[in-house]
Amino acid sequence: MGLRIYREPDITKPDLIAAWPGIGNIGLIAVDTLRRAVGAEPFAEIEPWHFFYPNGITVQNGELIDMGFPRSRFFYKKLGTKDLIFFVGEEQPSGGRKGYEMVDLVLNLASMFRCQRVYTAAAAVNTIHHSVKPKVWAVPNNKTLIQEVKQYPNTVLMSDVAGRIGEGNISGLNGLLLGAASKRDLPGICLLGEIPVYVSQFMTPYPKASRSIIEILNHNLGIDPDLSRLDEMDREVDENIERLYTMIPQEMRDHIDHLKYVEQPEAESTGKITEEDKKDIMQHIEEFFKKGGQED
Amino acid sequence: MTDGDLQKPSLIVIWTHEVGGLSKGLVTHLEEKLGWVCIEEIEPAGFFSLSGVEVKNDLIQFPASRFYSCLKENVFFFVSHAPSREPYQFLTKVIDLAIDSCGIKELYTIGGVVTSVTHTSPRRVFGIVNHAELNDTLTQCGVETGMDYQTPPGGGTSLSNYLLWVSKTRNLAGCTLWVEVPFYLANVRDPMACKKMLEILNLRFSMELDLHPIDIAIERLNTDIQSLRAENTDISRYIELLERGIALSEDEGETLSREVIKLLYNYD
User: Which terminus of chain A is less hemmed in, N or C, by CB atoms within 10 Å?
Assistant: First the structure.
């Protein structure tokens, strides 16, 4: 059980950018899009059989040739400004202990290549509208990064989010990796792209939030890769969301549409949306989806 | 400290969840003044949920359970998050490592107890021992001992008391120390409670800790709360009632706590 390194890249003090699947696959789409856009090349992977059950077989002429497993791969890219290692996990292992073993292996590789910083990406479910540009919640694992994070565009700390007083939970390995990294004194930041609470129930990817995360990474890394494929995906998903949105009862949609104006103080005619309004919307949405998306 | 004491190293246990920010206050001060070194660690797997991480004060948190030594003072420290799984196995492991790695002969745990004292009131420290002989040692340090208590039906007990019981079964003498924390400071920092605990440690272990920085923190907190009282007549009245020993209603107490948290939340 361990790391399989099939190539030793010549990289210097890279940053590690990692993601696993999650809500809206926001983090995974962000990281995988970026690694493709910069042309990163694979160089290592985690042997999967300790962590996952096989997901398929290949048979040729009656002979079992290969067994398929979810892959957990490392890619590298030398940039003029910064060398990068990407980690893309196709699945999260179930069980806390296996997850911890996996992040340990990721950090072992990070240590081997003297990574300076680690980023992970994930989703932040919030009461926003799907027409609004998602913000990014940035959560560092080291106090010294808080001032830096405050300077990021379109970004908030947990304490800037209404009702949170700087507290919350990041479930899964996207959070666990940073916790374990802090134990090794490796600074890191989790970038969580906002997804509307009702969209998170649609079981759809949400590339709009992935783009917000990529913009932060581009800002930090000083790069500007081509994101046209992501934008195309965003257009397709937007169409799907609009279609699904029409299935929500009109009364609830009227409520939700108020969220369009939360960040637009000049739209005074619609009145300010209060925290009570947001709680009301959340409750209605939860009840609606509990009923399987059916009206009474 | 006598020559006999040098042969009896003690372990001081500090849980990170303690009220009044006791853990952060004590750890920051002790680390700086004693220059302790991490000598042993308990891995989190099996004792803590690893399905994700908590965020507190805008930072990712990760469970850590570490032993520190500062041999000059003949004491060891164990600073840890409270385990969410297998507490008995965890506490047994703590005792095993304390005895095997550190040769511990005595154990002290430090905690806060929420009461209706005010932030300017002197703080009492209460002690529970697992060997009666320790009572005299604690009394000499200003700790109130000898209480009678039975947990009411349906109640629970703290991790510190659980550790005390586990150490009793292993014939390791120990005590839990509880310093009063005003209820409205339970979720923020209470430097006065921290100072009281450090005074006890100074007396018991002759640590000669300089407590001046804590005095500065106390003065700052008192000044800030005084400003809050000047701006908010309700808050001022609530604190005055407490100063007179009169209990607040639930709503009044919640309002006081909420306003103090808003005021002090960003304290380092």
Answer: C
Q: Burial code of A59-71, b = ≥16 C-beta within 10 A, e = fewer?
A: eeeeeeeeeebbe
Q: Do B52 and A171 touch (CB under 8 A)?
A: yes
Give chain B's mean pLDDT.
Answer: 90
Q: Residue A205: which pLDDT band, with cuts at 50, 70 and 90?
A: very high
Separation CA B130–CA B107 (nearest Å)? 10
**Domain layout of chain B by residue ranges:** 3-211, 214-264
Question: B24, B38, B58: which to substitute to probe chain A, counting the most A Cβ within 10 Å?
Answer: B58
Burial of A58 (0-12, 13-18, 19+ CB in 10 A): exposed
| Contact call for residues A40 and A76 (beta carbons, < 8 A) | yes
Q: How far apart are CA B239 and CA B256, in angstroms?
A: 8
Structurally, at CATH architecture level, domain B3-211 sits in 3-Layer(aba) Sandwich (3.40)
Higher pLDDT, B266 or B174: B174
Q: Which helix (H) or strand (E) holds A27?
A: helix A26-37
* CA separation for the pair A39, A78 (Å, rounded): 10
Residue A285 structure tokens: 């949405």
β-strand pairing of B75-80 with B10-15? parallel
Residue type, A261: Y
Q: Closest Cα to residue A174, out of A46, A114, A88?
A: A88
Burial of B219 per CB tally in 10 Å (0-12, 13-18, 19+): exposed
